[in-house]
Write a structure and sequence with these properties.
Elements lengths: L2 E5 L19 E2 L2 E2 H11 L4 E6 L3 H8 L8 E6 L6 H13 L4 E5 L2 E3 L14 E6 L10 E4 L2 E3 L5 E10 L15 H9 L3 E5 L4 E3 L3 H15 L1
Parallel strand pairs: 1-4, 1-6, 4-5, 8-12
Antiparallel strand pairs: 2-3, 6-11, 7-13, 8-11, 9-10, 9-11
Length: 223
Amino acid sequence: MKAMILAAGRGERMRPLTDNTPKPLLRAGPKRLIEYLIESLATAGFTELVINHAYLGEQVKQVLGNGEHYRIQIRYSPEGERGLETGGGIFQALPLLGEEPFLVVNGDIWTDYPFARVRRAPAGLAHLILVDNPPYSPQGDFALLGERVVTEGARRLTFSGMGIYRPELFAHCCPGRFPLAPLLREAMCQGWVTGEYYRGQWWDIGTPARLQRLEQWLQGAKR
């Protein structure tokens, strides 16, 4: 299975930290955010990785190179300065991802999710990893009904930005900018999306304050 890290976001809420640095290259402790993900994927046995990039994207390529340093092969999907949003970015990268199911991970999260347990073949078109709702987003995104992900439910959870997708999810898409969420919601209505509830560590690094809290947590965990 191949994996893709989404690294094309502008990171407006992270300014001024992202004025000269792409958000996935920001450091949390001794490493860049994206390096934690790459190393976790390599440890889990992934050998082929696709990274999209847009804003200051050449920095991503310069820092990560071909992935040899991380024991993984990296290929890039450039999107220009404006980017293609999540759905459009994945769609453009499909020729690099191939015809089999693939894993996609947001480049601005930190997690200890064990990628070795990723479902290699989702039952439907997608399999999402859901987590507890963070304080800044208490309403959540989706709900679990057994193993099915549904749009509404008694207990809503947050989509972690980690999911396994079949290329067929994008069968009717056209090149250009578009979000992923409408595709997922449509597939949920057809019963084609499964999911799991992960209770481990997961951080969405959307603001400088959250990045600082992650750094403090990592320092405490190291002790």
